[in-house]
Amino acid sequence: MGLLPKERTDLSPPFTHVGIDTFGHFLVKERRTELKRYGVLFTCLYSRALHIEVVDDLSTDSFLQALRRIQAVRGPISTIFSDGGTNFTGAPNQLEKDLLSMQDSKIKNYLLANKIQFQINTPTASHQGGIWERQIRIIRSILNGMTTKYDRQMTTEGLRTALYEIMATVNSIPLSTASLSDTEAIITANHLLTMKSQHLPPPPGQFDGTEIYGRSMYRKTQQMAEEFWTTWKAQYLPKIENRPKWEAPRQNIKVGDLVVIVDNNEPRNSWKTGVVVAVH
């Protein structure tokens, strides 16, 4: 395994170095109007903490406002890492094009003025951002799977509340423990963010699937947070216990090996092959 990057090992306050990704859209109702809302996920590379901001669209202005909001709450950001894959290069919105090309003077001038470095990973090399890609991908897949159920059932305020509840859930994941028998010694991202040893408990009451058809927006948000927790436990927690990479001996790729090239743009049943000429 390679050495960890300095952004993960150097002592720094939470959200000094972050990875970002987007998800959505959600359809919300404001009076009689249906509007689209998106989410921007910020993952701290040092503390593994997560922060979610709701934006009206994927424009440059909305991104800069979300960036200002997280810095107003979490403090200044020094480095932003982003995926350079199809989710950024293929999406038809101005923000993702601007982030990739950095041609938009507004974003470039803002990052320069605030001394923020913006780094984009190599396309289709998601392992370069494994620290946030695994967490973000599962969160995004769960939330995207819930859009059809909660579309048109939430307001912008309700959606923001539900996503903050989800943020608190993810930030409560144990990072380490000094003693397995002492639950008070378990460290989570919330401890580093709030400097409090206690977690935010769920609100009193029972919430079920019928809440989304009720009138109480508060109960809808709690049901959405409860459903996320159930799916999160089923999809994410079992996977972080696995360590399959070194369970059996495996030969490394070497120069001269014949390989199959995976290309998502190729038509079905098209198998491209190649020969390894260099190994990094």
Please explain how this structure is put together:
The structure is a single chain. By secondary structure, the protein is an alpha/beta fold. Helices cover 38% and strands 19% of the residues. It contains 10 helices and 9 strands. The strands form 3 sheets. It has a 5-stranded mixed sheet with strand order 3-2-1-4-5. A two-stranded antiparallel sheet has the order 6-7. Helix 6 (130-150) packs across helix 9 and helix 7 runs parallel beside helix 9 (217-235). The two termini are 12 Å apart. Mean pLDDT is 76; it is low at 85-92.
Strand order in the largest sheet: 3-2-1-4-5
N/C terminus separation: 12 Å
**Main sheet record:** 5 strands, mixed
Helix content: 25-40%
Using only C-alpha atoms, the radius of gyration works out to 21 Å
Class per helix and strand makeup: alpha/beta
| Low-confidence runs | 85-92
Range of strand content: 15-25%
> DSSP helix count?
10
Mean pLDDT: 76
Shape: globular
Number of strands: 9
The helix-strand sequence is: HEEEHEHHHEHHEEHHHEE
Features:
single chain; 280 residues; alpha/beta; two-stranded antiparallel sheet; 9 strands
Secondary structure blueprint with pairings:
Blueprint (H helix, E strand, L loop, with lengths): L5 H4 L7 E14 L2 E12 L5 E6 L4 H15 L4 E4 L3 H4 L4 H8 L3 H9 L3 E4 L9 H21 L5 H15 L3 E3 L10 E2 H6 L22 H19 L1 H4 L17 E4 L10 E4 L5
Parallel strand pairs: 1-4, 4-5
Antiparallel strand pairs: 1-2, 2-3, 6-7, 8-9
Helix pairs in contact: 6-9, 7-9
